[in-house]
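Hi C.,

You asked whether I'd gotten around to modeling the 308-residue construct. I have! Everything is below, sequence then structure, no commentary in between.
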Amino acid sequence: MAPQWDDTFKRLFAASSQDFVQWLMPGATLLEKAPLELKTTTKTRNADVLYKIVIDGQEALLHIEFQKRADPMMARRVWEYNVLATLEYGCPVYSVVIYLRPTSEVAKPFLIWGLPQFETVHTFRFQNIKLWEQPIADLQQTGLKGLLPLCLLAKDGERHEVAETVFEDLRDQKELLTLALTLASMIFLQEEDQSWLERQTFMLEEIISDTWFYKYILQKGLNQGIEQGIEQGIEQGIEKGREAAAEEMLRESRETLLHAVESRFPDLASLAQKQAEHIKDHHAIQQLIVKLFAAQTRDDAEIILLNQ
């Protein structure tokens, strides 16, 4: 998934972990985040989200993967994560795949392994959530503010009035408001949408300006600007270096031409200098030098110079 989407959703879940746990696993309580790295002796996998939770006094894990586009191997990939997490923590692991953007090919939420003539070896089930099919009202009625930014991706959610309602409802949740604005910038991409979003951000800037994520966004933009400036500077420097090198070679070629003419045909030195000043390519001067070395007489040399 694109880094910006991945980063934004991980931060969104981190900002309201308990809200998402309650939404996906009703009745569960978040204990703590679990390390995302899952290892075997031969491979390492990194889950998007792993939460240690407790339900009715029993511990379990909630595993979440974000998907922006279809993946035909999704069921197998989620099964692999689930098995590794089960082996690592020794408790039930409930996996959920959250599809962020519409796609026609969503993997079925189960994996069954076995030969037809024998009993099934593995049966694995997980949950698929297609955000574009989620009614906005269902998200709002949960009363969980951490879910409100998802309204922008819900059914009929890509509308200015929906986004403005989300922004207004999150005015007392600075971090979530910043993330909702960030998510809106990734969804509303038309020029008129961007102008509208700039106005929204300007009106809300006083609220979000002291949030860590807003500062992170500004710093990231600054760093990108610096990096682009450095890259442009390097490119300009390389180009200037090339130009300087070409100028130096041209100067040296002109000097070589004058020395060659002065040594053989001194009275043609002024003509050689005049002609050389009009030649801007050192390769052309070098070819002229070769021709002058081949000249047998002073008249031959003069004709060669005059023809340049």
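If it helps when you're writing up: The mean pLDDT is 83.

Thanks,
B.
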